Amino acid sequence: MASSNGNGNDSGNGNGKRSLPQIGADPVANLPAIEGFPASEKVYVEADGLKVPVRRIHLSGGEPAFDVYDTSGPQGVDPHHGLPKLRKPWIDARLAEGDTGNRTQMHYARRGIITPEMRFVALRESVTPEFVRDEIARGRAILPANINHPESEPMIIGSKFLVKINANIGNSAVTSTIGEEVDKLRWAVKWGADTVMDLSTGKNIHETREWILRNSPVPIGTVPIYQCLEKVGGDPEKLNIDLFIDTLIEQAEQGVDYFTIHAGVRLAYIPYTANRTTGIVSRGGSIMAKWCLAHHKENFLYTEFERICEVMKKYDVAFSLGDGLRPGSIADANDRAQLAELETLGELTDIAWKHDVQTMIEGPGHVPMHKIKENVDLQMKLCKEAPFYTLGPLVTDIAPGYDHITSAIGAAMIGWFGTAMLCYVTPKEHLGLPNRDDVKAGVIAYKIAAHAADLAKGHPGAQRRDDALSKARFEFRWQDQFHLSLDPDTAKDFHDETLPAPAAKGAHFCSMCGPKFCSMRITEEVRELAAKQEVEAGLAQKAAEFREGGQRLYAGSDDHHH
Questions:
Q1: Does residue 23 surpass a pLDDT of 90?
Q2: Which residue of 203, 256, 259, 495 has the fewest C-beta atoms within 10 A of its own C-beta?
Q3: Which pLDDT band holds residue 151 (cuts at 50, 70, 90)?
Q4: Which positions ≥6 away from 311 have C-beta within 8 Å?
Q5: Residue 7 pLDDT > 50, yes or no?
Q6: What is the DSSP string of 379-431?
Q7: Burial class (CB in 10 A: 0-12, 13-18, 19+), 463
Q8: 3 has a pLDDT exceeding 80
Q9: What digits encode the pLDDT tens for the residues 55-66?
């Protein structure tokens, strides 16, 4: 079925077998193995002809196994060949059935169609397929799924679903290789990243992205203006809409699932940033601001937005409308520049929806806690509840080296108020390019924030894991407590630092309080004592009744019949 989707890709719709591009020596030689989780196995829940992955955690003490949402993708796959093309039959069938040229999940949803991707998501989220379809149709959720990224396992981003997290990876002009980026991808999805953005700005941008896409079970996002800038030798003034459209097509052909596009940075808003503490901190925002000022023209991403929509709907690439004027410091939060841009993003959302293009809205940034709710409320109003996707926000600026924590505080709050996806921040934020350890620290901090938000929102089933872990903790099932945690290795290592002996895994105390002061052990003893006293009190009461009843052995007997 050559070029049946009309996108000029020699591999049909990009789902044919590919050989990944070689850059010098083998780029993925000597990649570290990604170990699984202890006491866990990947299983597939089968329903309606679909196989949906979960991680099954086996527990001790007769407790039933516990299933958790799993983003890690198929295991044991050679990265040279890429992942299996799960969605290829679904995509091919749709294209064969009557292709209108608009391939978006929103387009199908608005025609009343429930796609296999929607059914897959419904099983993952424990909701009905009709609910998934309706949320996508009204624009309150997106299912990012480029027709040229068939390897992805469908997931959904929306305020009525589990809060998702994104991990940023990508090289810079200074550091990193294809192998390191593929490793960061696999590492991020192991720990629970729901989507990954490739923000490469260094060498081999196209090839790096190809390796990432073919090995990614989660949606991949990019900021296309970065590659455009590379193509014009780093000079923003040389950018133009034709180069931009060509770059969108190049990336859409590869399978990128969502594009950050800074179309809300309008010429009139740039002066609003003049008195800011930290000016324009978005890379894409600053590039477009420089172009606008150099030409003294309106942003071409804004004026040519409908042209961009034509590309998006052909491949089902979702918009992530960029917040190019987001605040880069607490002092600049919720200022005129930020809110003017947000208003424009609402206007652009309407245009995207006219084309049935899936759309989410990016948000800040640096916002103190008392200003967070206002951000969400304004976004929901101006952008008609299109999913909100925020970086943090950081709630204070005083902790470089710990910004995964300063931002996870804001992320938990903004998720509670209705943000659909949280973009992680690593300990390296403001300081350098994250490495493998930073990626894990960022993902774990954000898994905590997202889960805390799910609990606060009363998401059905969110508390089950907390309850299972708390029960294991109270019953001193140490191994189960480790295995149910987000990071079993670290939990076990911390415990074993002071009590490494195998027997300690059955002990009714840890090194924090020791055997005499363990509150949970004392509580157990209190309960046993209370139960014993209850029994004793019951026996005493029976004895008293016996005495009061004239010490007759059987109630109602007169003791005269032998």
A1: no
A2: 203
A3: very high
A4: 245, 248, 249, 252, 317
A5: no
A6: HHHHTTTPPEEEE--BS-SS-TT-HHHHHHHHHHHHHHTT--EEE---TTTTT
A7: middle
A8: no
A9: 999 999 999 999
- Say yes or no to pLDDT of 455 above 70: yes
Phi/psi at 15 (5° precision): -100, 0
Report d(CA 95, CA 381) in Å as an integer.
Answer: 36
Which amino acid is residue 282, in one-letter code? Answer: S
Which pLDDT band, with edges at 50, 70 and 90, does 562 fall under?
A: low
Instruction: Please tell me the distance from the alpha carbon of residue 43 to that of residue 45, in angstroms, as a whole number.
Output: 7
Whole-number Cα distances in Å, 455 to 90, 240, 424: 34, 46, 19
Task: Give the pLDDT mean for 399-408.
Answer: 98
For residue 332, the number of C-alpha atoms closer than 13 Å in the C-beta half-sphere is: 23
Residue 94 structure tokens: 């749709």
Mention every residue, 6+ apart, whose C-beta is less than 8 A from residue 299: 262, 263, 265, 266, 267, 288, 291, 292
Q: Distance between CA 103 and CA 335 in Å, rounded?
A: 38
Which band of pLDDT confidence, cut at 50, 70 and 90, is reported for residue 558? Answer: low
Q: Cβ–Cβ contacts within 10 Å for residue 126, how many?
A: 11
Strand runs labelled E in 323-398: 359-363, 388-391
At 279-302, the pLDDT tens digits run: 999 999 999 999 999 999 999 999
Q: What is the largest CA-CA distance in the chain?
A: 117
Handedness of CA 95, 97, 98, 103 (dihedral sign): negative
Any idea which residue has 């169609």 for tokens? 113
Secondary structure (3-state) at 299? coil
Amino acid identity of residue 107, one-letter, is H
What are the structure tokens assigned to 291, written together? Answer: 């172009």
Contacts of 418 (CB under 8 A, 6+ apart): 159, 376, 380, 388
Short-list 377, 449, 461, CA closest to 411? 449
